[in-house]
């Protein structure tokens, strides 16, 4: 996903701007057109098979039964707040430049990957009640 967002950041960040009825719009020429189209579609596909469903499965496996209801409600609330932040920040970022918008989202995608690699532990073969919420290194 980060690669496709990065491709979109480069494509739109280097595109010429044309002023239209809705303000400046990027003009994609040559190879930029299919690259943008492919990158956008690969992003949707990659999200649909990774972050989209996995975050909800991960949340369900991350908390022991004793605190699961409260922890899931807080985690789901944080997820929806993050979705709202992305949805509401895109229009003003787009106005500042699509390259900037996709560049920022690329940065956060890379940071989230690093976070997962460092802090999210494998739960395969581990009983739910044996998982410690506060200790990802165990």
Key structural traits:
mainly alpha; two-stranded antiparallel ribbon; elongated; 138 residues; single chain; 5 helices
Tell me what the structure shows.
The protein is mainly α and 138 residues long. The protein has helices at residues 2-13, 32-49, 51-62, 68-96, 98-119, and strands at 16-20, 23-27. It has a two-stranded antiparallel ribbon. Strand 1 (16-20) and strand 2 (23-27) form a beta hairpin. The model has no long low-confidence stretch (mean pLDDT 85).
Low-confidence stretches: none
**SSE pattern, N- to C-terminal:** HEEHHHH
Rg, rounded, reads 19 Å
Structural class given helices, strands, pairing? mainly alpha
| First-to-last CA distance | 28 Å
Count up the helices: 5
SSE topology:
Layout: H1 2-13, E1 16-20, E2 23-27, H2 32-49, H3 51-62, H4 68-96, H5 98-119
Short description:
The chain is mainly alpha-helical and 138 residues long.
């Amino acid at each position: 996903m980060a690669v496709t967002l990065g491709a979109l950041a480069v494509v739109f960040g280097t595109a010429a701007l044309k002023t239209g009825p809705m303000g400046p719009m990027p003009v994609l020429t040559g190879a930029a057109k299919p690259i943008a189209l492919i990158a956008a579609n690969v992003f949707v596909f990659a999200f649909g098979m990774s972050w989209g469903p996995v975050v909800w499965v991960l949340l369900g496996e991350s908390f022991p039964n004793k605190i699961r209801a409260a922890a899931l409600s807080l985690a789901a609330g944080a997820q929806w707040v993050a979705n709202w932040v992305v949805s509401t920040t895109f229009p003003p970022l787009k106005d500042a430049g699509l390259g900037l918008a996709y560049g920022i989202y690329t940065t956060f995608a890379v940071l989230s990957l690093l976070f997962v690699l460092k802090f999210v532990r494998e739960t395969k073969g581990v009983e739910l009640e044996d998982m410690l919420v506060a200790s990802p290194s165990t």
